[in-house]
Amino acid sequence: MRRREFITLVGGAAAVWPVAAHAQQTGAVRLIGVLMGYAESDAAARSEVEAFRGALAKLGWTEGSNLRIELRWSAADPDKIKALAKELVDLRPDAILGHTTPVIGVLARQTQTIPIVFTVIADPIGSGFAASLARPGGNITGFSDFSSALGGKWVELLKEIAPHTVRMALLFNPATTSPVEFYMPSIQAAALSFAVQVSAAPVHTKDEIEGVIAAQARSPGGSLIVLPDAFNAANRDLIIGLAARFGVPVIYNANYYAVSGGLITYGADRTEEFRQAAGYIDRILRGAKPADLPIQQPTKFEFVINLKMAKALGLDVPLQFQQLADEVIE
User: Fold this and answer.
1) Which pTM value belongs to this model?
2) 13-146+269-300 with 150-268+302-329: one CATH topology?
3) Quick one: CATH architecture of 150-268+302-329?
């Protein structure tokens, strides 16, 4: 139940003259680059891009008329991110929308002049993307969807839904995640409060994921926190399936994990974040400087429980806990 695409010049001049004439009458066509950290096959990421496009349209930017979007998908591949970032920067767009910390890290090294708006970033200051939240100071600004305090909330909610938990492993890929240190103070404080042992579980390939989850299942009380990470998101079906197979309770950071069958999620509304990013792109196209646009942090977080997975794991979810959720999937 729910509780909450300037035209490519491939022909002769005559073939494009009507469009060119139209562009001269209505103003230059503006070019936006979009570099996604996920794969094109990711339905949730495609939905977020459509939300971005829809918000731009509401602000008066029409693809094929006054706007052209060059969209690229990196599938959380570091080499592909580098190649696609260079490809987009070489197009000299009016602005770039970048998705995830690894993508912004590469874009930041590729250009210090093209305006960049980010989404799905945990620690923009610690990552060196901006001088401060209020005044970023460079060519990069955007929307952070994490708070350092989230780490403690993940521990709390996971312990609540799986009271027998005494060990939690933190699943992440060092090459594609945000700095794990961003969350550690709150994770460690909560772990101490709930008498839970926490350990880092870095992985570099998807073949290593099974070993981490299997290790948590070797003795009672093991569970898993799937940290914000493009690698984890790209492999979410694998993680969810292994968690079910080994009977390990897992908390995730975005609602699409629960939709895909994950036990419990807590994180910002990323679709809304993409809509808001369209607003910053609009302001930049109209003359605003990224240096003067404050980095926005989330004000609302979504809490989703998948009761089907809970039952498969033998977890009894109290009604009052369900009532706290924004969505319960049955």
Assistant:
1) 0.84
2) yes
3) 3-Layer(aba) Sandwich (3.40)
